[in-house]
Design a protein that fits this description.
- Helices cover about 75% and strands about 0% of the residues.
- With about 280 residues, it is mostly helical.
- The two termini are about 35 Å apart.
- The model has no long low-confidence stretch (mean pLDDT about 85).
- Keywords: Cell membrane, Membrane, Transmembrane, Transmembrane helix, Transport.
Length: about 280
C-alpha cells in the first residue's frame, strides 16, 4: 500500500514538474526556431521551416552586437557582486553566531527587515546620484550586495552553528588571531554553503531585470534581461527573435542549476539541524 502511494506521488510530482518547467521551456524553444509569421501565432505547432541558425545570428547581431555587450556587463556585475557577498556575509554570519552581544538582536532585526521590506527605488536613486554612482557598474554591484546580503548572512549563520566551537578555541590557543581563525579554519569548512550561495545568488543577479532597469540605464550599461526590449515595440513584436533571445539568456543559468543542483540542496539543508 505504501509503495503504491509513493509511486502515485512520484507520478503526480513528475507531471506537475513537466507542466511547470518543461512545457514552458519547450514552448520557448519552438517559437525561437520559427519564422516571424509562425511565431506570432504563439502555439505548439512545429515550424514549417526550422530557422534556428538564422534567428540566432539575427539576435546576436541586433543593434551592433548588443547581446554580447549585455553578456559582458551581466557577467561583471554577477562575478563582483557574488564575490563581495560571499566574503562579507560569511564574516557577518560568523561574528553573529560566535560573539554574543547586545547588538546581535539589532543585527537580527536588520537582517529580517532586509528580507521583508521592499526596496525604496526613488530614495535609492537619489542616494546613488548624490554619491556619483548612479548609472555606474560600481553602483549596480553595491545595490546587488545590499539587496541580497540578508539572505546570504542568515544562510551562513545557520551553517556556522553546526561547526564546533572547539575548533575556534584550539586555533586561539595555538596563537591564531581572529582573522586567521576565520580565513584559515572556518572559511574552508563553509564550502557546501558557499557553493549554494554562489549558485543561487549568481542565478538571481544574472537574471535580475528590475534593478538594472532602475539603477543602470543607458545603452552602454545594458544587461542580458534588458535585451528583451530589442524585439518589442508598441506596434509590432518579432516573437521569433524575442524567444530566441529568451532562450539564449535562459540557457547559462539553467546549465549552472543542473550541474550544481545537488550542492544547492546539500548547502540549504546542512544548517537545518544544529550540531
Amino acid at each position: 500500500m505504501k509503495q503504491s502511494r509513493s509511486l502515485a506521488s512520484g507520478i503526480v510530482a513528475l507531471i506537475v514538474a513537466t507542466v511547470i518547467f518543461i512545457l514552458p521551456f519547450l514552448f520557448i524553444a519552438l517559437q525561437a526556431v520559427k519564422s516571424k509569421s509562425e511565431a506570432s501565432r504563439l502555439n505548439f505547432a512545429l515550424p514549417k521551416e526550422w530557422l534556428f541558425w538564422e534567428n540566432l545570428v539575427a539576435v546576436v547581431e541586433a543593434r551592433n552586437y548588443q547581446l554580447l555587450l549585455a553578456y559582458f556587463n551581466s557577467t561583471v556585475i554577477t562575478v563582483f557582486s557574488v564575490s563581495i557577498l560571499v566574503i562579507l556575509s560569511a564574516m557577518v554570519g560568523y561574528v553573529m553566531q560566535r560573539r554574543q552581544s547586545r547588538w546581535n538582536g539589532v543585527a537580527q532585526v536588520a537582517l529580517l527587515m532586509g528580507l521583508m521590506m521592499p526596496p525604496a527605488v526613488v530614495p535609492t536613486i537619489g542616494l546613488l546620484q548624490s554619491i556619483g554612482l548612479f548609472k555606474t557598474m560600481t553602483g549596480m554591484i553595491l545595490i546587488q550586495v545590499a539587496y541580497n546580503i540578508s539572505f546570504s548572512t542568515l544562510l551562513y549563520r545557520s551553517f556556522i552553528a553546526t561547526i564546533p566551537r572547539d575548533l575556534d578555541e584550539a586555533a586561539r590557543i595555538d596563537g591564531a588571531k581572529p582573522w586567521q581563525i576565520f580565513f584559515r579554519v572556518i572559511l574552508p569548512l563553509l564550502k557546501p554553503v558557499t557553493v549554494t550561495n554562489v549558485v543561487v545568488q549568481s542565478i538571481f543577479v544574472f537574471n535580475d531585470f528590475t534593478n538594472p532597469l532602475y539603477y543602470l540605464p543607458g545603452r552602454e550599461n545594458i544587461t542580458v534581461q534588458l535585451t528583451l526590449y530589442n524585439f518589442q515595440s508598441t506596434y509590432t513584436s518579432q516573437y521569433n527573435l524575442l524567444f530566441m533571445n529568451i532562450l539564449l539568456v535562459t540557457i547559462p543559468p539553467l546549465i549552472v542549476f543542473i550541474f550544481f543542483n545537488r550542492q544547492i540542496v546539500t548547502g540549504m539543508t546542512a544548517g537545518a539541524v544544529k550540531g
